[in-house]
Design a protein that fits this description.
There is one protein chain. The protein is of the alpha+beta class. Helices cover 48% and strands 18% of the residues. It is built from seven helices and six strands, in the order ααβααβαββββαα. A four-stranded mixed β-sheet has the order 2-1-3-4. A two-stranded antiparallel sheet has the order 5-6. A hairpin with a 5-residue loop joins strand 3 (115-119) and strand 4 (125-130). Helix 3 crosses helix 4 (67-76) and helix 4 (67-76) packs parallel to helix 6. The longest helix has 15 residues, at 26-40. It starts with a helix and ends with a helix. Mean pLDDT is 91; it is low at 1-13.
């Protein structure tokens, strides 16, 4: 029975949009997002993971397709997908980039992927969110995600 459902699962997974740009420097991406957030009075939400991670792609799809979550995200955050891939098979430059991202974001990889890192307008890490607390079944719980995001908006933090 499990084998019979495999093709459907693979099709569902491959249908999700790849959202991580693997060709850009993630540190430069973070720096640009911080500058934009500062100019717009927002925080930065880094979704750390990669196109290799089905849960990462599911969350990106969830944010896009849930209008309430999408509005909270757009109103309060510069939302970026930070590629994290420490694979030695792709060369030392890739390993160096992954190490720099981990250091810059206070080692969020310890929580698994995706992991969410909220940065204030001065590029300080103010929260790291383990995504497993936001999951429900094979997707994400809208109430949990909304609670997480609402608690880390600039207005909530700067009370």
């Amino acid at each position: 029975m499990l084998l019979a459902t495999m093709p459907m699962l693979l099709c569902a997974q491959t249908a999700l949009k790849r959202v991580y740009n693997e060709s850009i420097d993630p540190i430069e991406q973070i720096d640009s997002a911080v500058a934009k957030a500062k100019a717009e009075g927002k925080f930065v939400m880094c979704q750390v993971g990669g196109n290799w991670c089905p849960w990462c792609l599911r969350f990106a799809d969830f944010v896009t397709n849930n209008s309430t979550i999408s509005k909270v995200t757009n109103d309060n955050f510069v939302y970026i997908h930070v590629n994290y891939k420490p694979s030695r098979s792709e060369g030392e430059e890739q390993v160096r980039r992954a190490a720099a991202v981990a250091e810059r974001l206070n080692h969020p990889e310890r929580f698994g992927f995706p992991v969410f890192v909220v940065l204030d307008q001065n590029a300080n890490v103010i929260h790291i969110q383990d995504s497993s607390f936001l999951e429900q079944g094979q997707g994400y719980d809208p109430e949990r995600v909304l609670r997480f995001m609402s608690n880390w908006t600039p207005s909530a933090v700067n009370r």
